[in-house]
Amino acid sequence: MAAVEKRDRDAPLRAASANVHSKVFDDEVVVLDMKSGTYFSLRGSGVDIWRLIEANASCAGIVEALEGRFDASGSEIATAVDTLIAELTEAELIAADTSIESAGPPPEIAEKAPFPAPEVERFTDMQDLLLLDPIHEVDDSGWPHTPVTR
Predict the structure, then answer these.
(1) What is the pLDDT of residue 35?
(2) Among residues 67, 95, 92, which one has the least CA distance to residue 80?
(3) Please, which residues have CB within 8 angstroms of residue 87's CB and are 6 or more apart in sequence?
(4) Dihedral through CA 64, CA 67, CA 69, CA 73, nearest 10?
(5) How far is residue 93 from each of residues 32, 37, 51, 106, 109, measured CA to CA in Å?
(6) No. of helices (H) and no. of strands (E), the chain
(7) Cis peptide before 12 (omega within 30 of 0)
(8) How many domains does the chain have?
(9) Tens digits of per-residue pLDDT, 28-66?
(10) Is 56 a domain residue?
(11) pLDDT, position 55
(12) Which residue of 13, 22, 67, 133 is 20 to 30 Å from 124, comparing CA positions?
């Protein structure tokens, strides 16, 4: 069995590449990986977690922010956050980046809501269609920048 790499819980998080795009709706975030054609739906506290990732929060910062917002034990929140962060990292949607500054946690809310566990679904049903699109002929800077041809 391969050794599991220990994640720096204080490292700021960001989208893994310019090929990762997201749209936040009221109670859902859709994240699209243009490189693989896979898209993801995040619901529950996954929406809050994604918004904090967009603000370059660290894993520890996300846990702290959710503890200030939701009525749940710190260990329950930390486990849920760690699980989702690991899944998003494995899917190459997010990456730790110590070269950027981590966002501070938002202020606590006076009355805490019950903690909705993060939910994530992976969809591959449109991969073929998305990968046929010529926008995939790009370099690491992502679309709409095309690679330099020689």
Answers:
(1) 87
(2) 67
(3) 120
(4) 170
(5) 9, 12, 14, 23, 29
(6) 4, 8
(7) no
(8) 1
(9) 999 999 888 899 999 999 999 999 999 999 999 999 999
(10) yes
(11) 92
(12) 13
pLDDT band at 141 (very low <50, low <70, confident <90, very high): low
What's the token pair of residue 141? 């800077």
Q: Which residue has the tokens 């730790």?
A: 96
pTM: 0.76
28 occurs within a structural domain: yes
Query: Which two three-digit tokens encode residue 147?
Result: 């690679």
What is the rounded distance in angstroms from the CA atom of residue 32 to the CA atom of residue 21?
5
What is the residue whose two structure tokens read 């330099």?
Answer: 148
Domain presence at residue 70: yes
Which domain, by its residues, includes 43? 13-127
Q: For residue 145, count other CB atoms closer than 10 A to its CB.
A: 11
